[in-house]
Amino acid sequence: MRAPTERQSAPETRDRILDAAEALFVEHGFEATSMRMITGQAGANIAAVNYHFGSKDALIQEVFKRRLTELNRRRLAALDRLEAEAGGAALKPSRIVEAFFGTALEMAADTAHGGHTFMRLLGRTYTEPNGFVRQFLAEEYAEAVERFLAALYRALPDVPREEILWRFHFMMGAMSYAIAGTDALQLFAGKFDDADPERLLPRLMSFLLGGLRAPLPGQGVPGENGKGAPRTQN
Amino acid sequence: MRAPTERQSAPETRDRILDAAEALFVEHGFEATSMRMITGQAGANIAAVNYHFGSKDALIQEVFKRRLTELNRRRLAALDRLEAEAGGAALKPSRIVEAFFGTALEMAADTAHGGHTFMRLLGRTYTEPNGFVRQFLAEEYAEAVERFLAALYRALPDVPREEILWRFHFMMGAMSYAIAGTDALQLFAGKFDDADPERLLPRLMSFLLGGLRAPLPGQGVPGENGKGAPRTQN
DNA sequence: GTATGATTAAAACAATCGTTTGATTGATGA
DNA sequence: TCATCAATCAAACGATTGTTTTAATCATAC
Question: Which residues bind DNA (chains A, B) (predicted)?
Answer without folding.
Answer: 34-53
